[in-house]
User: Fold this.
Amino acid sequence: MTRADSFRTGVAGAAAWAALALASQGAAQPIRAVGQVLALRPEATSAVLILRRDGHRVAAHPFDLLYAGDSVTVEADGASVDVFDVGSRSARRIRRADGVYALAGGAPGGASEAYVDYFRRGFAALFNTPRKPLPVETEARGQATAPPLRADSLLPEGRQFMPRGSTDLAVFWRGGAAAVTLSGRAGRGEPASAPGPLASATLRLEPLREGLRITVGAKALVWTVEVADPADIPVPPWAAGRPPGSDPERLVRAAWLLREGPATWRLFAVSEIATLSRGNYAADRLWQAIRAGDFETPAIPGGGSQDDRFTASEK
Assistant:
């Protein structure tokens, strides 16, 4: 199954999602999910069940979120369900012969209602609208000209802050795959890129103690990283005095930084999302949306707009 298949939805599906979100607190909390029902076959089948952690058995519907401890089973021949499981970082088709399928994702932890509400109002659309399909690289005749490397507007070149002790870094750009070099004591890394409008690199560092320079290609793109105290990481105004205490809250802070926070903390925000994507369903969706060039979300009521996201003040 292709990534485009995984994200394909329709008007009826979006309406179903809205009803679920209003009817169930859990359906409105993708930051606490570890997977999601993508599609049923046949579409109207009632033979696919979600076995909730608390023992309840409920009929599955497209876009149902799945939480730590949930499992899925198919009770009729000829029926199947496609499930995305963040633990395996992939979608899987489950049939009756597969028995009970338990999701591998670990418990993402709790989050305060302020964090949950911000994420639901600003980013829930990423879970019920089609993603832009990533093009497939194919072999072509003749000489191909590689496009020039350039920074994406979400992560412009220049000065960035990372907290002291950071061990993970993620960066992305436009123009195709290229080598990534880190100056200073952090060493070197190579990009783990995918076909599509953006290439990306995720790198493991020694605990960050001093500034470094990130170079993509032959000095085509450069970011200068300065080390900051972890206590200086900006937090949303509605979370003042309550820094993130769990992975879901870290994710919401990172999403807020990209949307409304200081532009000089976007490298940190992207790195947080990429790191959390290894075990958090909502982070995985955001990271894929960023890499697909699809991080376009509506303005949050009372918050920053799509335009001022790119004019945030410096630290």
About this structure: The longest strand covers residues 221-228. The mean pLDDT is 77. The chain has six helices and 15 strands.
